[in-house]
Amino acid sequence: MKIFQVALGILTAIGGFVDIGDLVTNGLVGARYGLSLAWATVLGTVGICLYAEMSGRVAAVTGRGTFDLVRERLGPRAGLANLIASFLVTGLTLAAEIGGVALALELATSVNYLLWVPLVAFFLWLLIWRVKFSYLENGAGLLGLALLAFGFALWKLHPDYGSLVHQVVAPHKPGTERLNSYFYYAIALFGAAMTPYEVFFFSSGGVEEKWTRKDLMVERANVLIGFPLGAMLSLSIAACATLVLKPRGIEVSTLGQIGLPVAFAAGKVAIAFLILGFVAATFGAALETGLSCGYSIAQYFGWQWGKFVKPREASRFHLVVLLSLIGAAGLVLTTIDPVKITEYSVVFSAVALPLTYFPILVISNDPDYMGDKKNGRVMNFGATVFLVIIVVASVAAIPLMIWTRAGQ
Amino acid sequence: MTLGRCRRLLMFGALLAALTSCVGNAATTGAYSGKAHLSAEAAASALQTAKLAVDSSAKGNLFDSYLEIVLSQAEDDLGSVQQQFDSIQPPNTTEADRIRDRLDTLLTRAASILADIRITARRDQQAAMIKTAAGIPALADKFDTFAEATA
Lengths: 408, 151
Hints:
The structure holds 2 protein chains of 2 kinds.
Chain A: H1 2-17, H2 20-33, H3 38-62, H4 66-109, H5 113-130, H6 133-143, H7 149-156, H8 161-169, H9 179-193, H10 196-208, H11 216-245, H12 255-301, H13 315-333, H14 338-363, H15 367-370, H16 377-403
Helix pairs in contact in A: 1-6, 1-11, 2-9, 2-11, 2-12, 2-14, 3-9, 3-10, 3-11, 3-14, 4-5, 4-10, 4-12, 4-13, 4-14, 5-12, 5-13, 6-12, 7-11, 7-12, 9-14, 9-16, 10-12, 11-12, 12-13, 14-16
Chain B: H1 3-21, H2 29-58, H3 64-87, H4 94-122, H5 126-133, H6 136-149
Helix pairs in contact in B: 2-3, 2-4, 2-5, 2-6, 3-4, 4-5, 4-6
């Protein structure tokens, strides 16, 4: 039973790792820089593994949500700064995910994506309101495995693996590209891999599933095996773009372009799986971001939250989720390009990272909360090094965005 | 958050959007040439996207709905490139006028090809679509040559 639980957790972690931010950023960067920026995805994945493990451990040991603890440990002012930054970025990400689902459905049906947006938002709300947490998490994560079509397409393209690996391990900025744009996209990839909602959802999910110290092994397997395998999926998206789109000089600006290498190399069945994967990955991430909006506000204000109680017992939590969905759908319905929303959301994620991750590091080091499960020296060293990287990325993100005109 | 802070945040957002997205005018021939270079690259990208989609469809690898959307978006992208380039005020030099005429001619031909491909795809005339798309590589090469000349 434990093995089944671990395997399911790993599979859902792989399928749930990729969202619209990973799809767009990896496709765009692969088509422009090849795999020379894969190091940023690897770096972001190590970072998310460290901090997700910490936040999951905090949830398992304390049985409480992150924002609840942040406010208690750091005080209401620091907690509020954390809340505002995280909520705004998560809300923007929610809009990007809803747009992503609508774009994927447009590819499958030819019906304009704007017509899908209200329906997608409605189904998200309905599922969050009515369906059990474990079904939501596992269903979306398992269906997201359909994105393995990218891995299949990569294999069918018969690439020179040595050349691809060389691009990863000996990164080299293409001669025609400017250095500032190169680092702008490095930050975008880093932000896409370390999106703040992932740790909030992971830790709040731990509370929803009533994790205890006994579940730490499952939690670590999800993070330390599932997330890196999910990152491999992200890299396969970039590799497909490198092999098919880059030689043709295609600049990625739509979701349809990102899927073209799969169609070119692997055929109709693979493209059917891919569209299913697009829908599942973005819909699953929309569920996670929608819930995370509710988790963050409700935990900060001390309201009853979660799906482990009936909706009427957590009415304010469900109201926040509903309003977040309406706001996010409204943003997409303004006809702002969802791919542009995604590009901005991953960069703003990078800006907000220190406010999200610093409190987690503080709490996971506090023996009053964590007892003998507080961070060890190795974990603290790694997490501190990453905090420095996170701060550098955060400070550099907006100046680079202005300097490069958002990567142009 | 106070009303003043909200206002400042909104102003910051608006300023950021303006700084990262505006097209602007080209004061010198060099700046105009640079914008023409970027427009040519973007136009070639739209053409190559359409070609890749048509090639995949010709092999039976793409659903009609997917093909239709990709072609339509490539056409929109090209239209947007043409509109943005035409909205730039060129400097008053012969060289700038020459660049403008050359790129405008190429963009008009590209728009015509993409429209033809979209029409044949929607009419389910696959042979005609493939034949029209066969003209893309030569035109894309002309965009590449233009982009190199204006780099």
